[in-house]
Batch of 3 targets.
Target 1
Amino acid sequence: MFSYPKSFSALAPLTLLLLGMSMPLEGAGQLTERTVQPQDRGRQADSTEVSDLLNRARSEANQLKMDASEMESFTRSNLDWQTQSGKINQIKNDVNAIGRTVSKLKDEEAMASDWQKIAIVRITPLLQELASNTTAVINHLNKDRGRNLNSQEHRDMLKMNAELSGDLASVVEDFVTYGKTKSRFYQLQHKLELSEPAGQ
């Protein structure tokens, strides 16, 4: 049987980390090799490390979206408390995984290009809200021990988690797509030996 106090304590460090407090993360090492992609003169070039981390965040966000959507679907069935406890534990792990990736993104922020910095800024508050809402779901399940799985409050929290997860996955996907499109544009520009007119 799942122990929710243990699940909650594992989520709490992530919440504190995302709020800007210094918390060590297991396996969060420093990247030693820094490479960049060609870009406009006078502007910070795209960081390959940041692009790689955004790709990782996309995979993690998609997994989180799937798990949160599946748990939200439980509100339309009669699944027991133990099943819901297992799924929220998976969601907690998903949130922690993407939290570690965002922590590494913030470590690399100084090397990021303008659009990459914007991506980090936009992802962070969505993840903060997800961490907060996931904690609320865990606390609710802890408190009621399955007695109110059909309550409107419970349904609303699971719906909110699914929506936030979808929003996060969409934002990360859009930035990753933008980065790939931009990279292809510069590769073609270089191949065709084109340069933008001065002042543009």
Note: The chain has one domain: 46-191.
Target 2
Amino acid sequence: MKVIPNIVLFILIILLSQCRSSNNMGVENIIYSSDNIDQYTGKKGLFVDKRDGKKYKWIKIGEQIWMAENLRYKTDTGCVAYKHSKRYVEHYGYLYNGNTAQIVCPKGWHLPTKQEYERLCKFLGNDIHDVFEVFKKDKSIGFNSINAGSYNANTNKYRKSHLFRLDEYWSSSISYCDNNSITYFNTLTINYYRKIALVGVLGLESTYIYIPIRCIKDD
């Protein structure tokens, strides 16, 4: 009499295991389908850059839709991989000079203006210190800022420090032009040493300085 309950129990365990497997597959499908490739509904998703077929995460923050990864599109000029090695591109994206950054975003996206960055920061906090703390924790907003560093083409040197970490991203807004007609563009700067996040006033030189970019969805 004891054998029968054991067999029944064994069958129930198998059935339960199958149900769990089926349920897990369903959850994975829901999570993936909720990402809505090229359909910008909900709070997050994926889109495909039609130029090279690469997929990118996007996140909705307030009323803005941002790329949640650095751009990885290879241009003929004006971009470099960190330490000139392609193995870093998947994580850090490419670093672009300011001029190339203005024209490299995928169709349907554009390089953020100074005002669009300011709108993002205003949504995240009341001052530059509050905004920094949100970027630092980041899990709830999903912008996923990373320490990608920068590259100086004049010196052929990369700058990437953990102690004096700066996460910088190009904007499309011109800060000023110098006497040599070189343009300086505003940047979003997340400064881990000073614990502030703000849209830079002075901007970075557009020809020799290379930093990553985040694109924002067209309205």
Note: Helices lie at 3-34, 89-92, 98-101, 114-124, 128-137.
Target 3
Amino acid sequence: MPICWLICCATDGHRWAPLSPQSDSIRALRALVRARDDLVANRVALGNQLLSTLELWPGAACIFADITSPIALAFLLRYPSPAAATRLNATRLQRFCRLQHYSGRRSAAELLARLHAAAPSLTGPQASEALAQVVASLVHVLQPLIVQISELTRRIEHFVESAARRADHHVLPTRRPYLCCANPGRARRCARTFLHGRAARRRSRCRPRYLSVR
């Protein structure tokens, strides 16, 4: 043990705050955030696996920007192989997007042009059937996973928003009271900031200093 540390303990030990176990709020928040991080890692791994599988059908991988978005997964579930999309045209794609409440800025004709502009699929009947089975299996795993990630995200935002409103210094420690988070809108922004890292935290008007959750 360093001698300087012993000297500090002897001379300034009374100035140190006593160590205390983590509060129940911190333990709950850590559990929620860790579970969400693990599910996000699984979503990324499954999304990469899905992209690798779609090398046999490149058009389905580029028709929508995010392969793990709800609209992209719904498309793959409806058209899991090139054979299933042989009769797909702009009218049917527009009807599909309307049923899925697609809010993107791309029209059905533009999306269809993306699908046709990609490299053609060279799968035969057996490979196409196997591709459809694998794609459908991955989509069935990804869809509930994404739903649970959204549920955990809302739970964490609600947890941090509630802590900001009641100025819970166990969850949101700061030298000053959380007067800036008394406004519900700012409290919600603080909750979102908690999930989006240091870059978003620097852009936040509240600039809260949160405890690390890892």
Note: The radius of gyration is 25 Å.
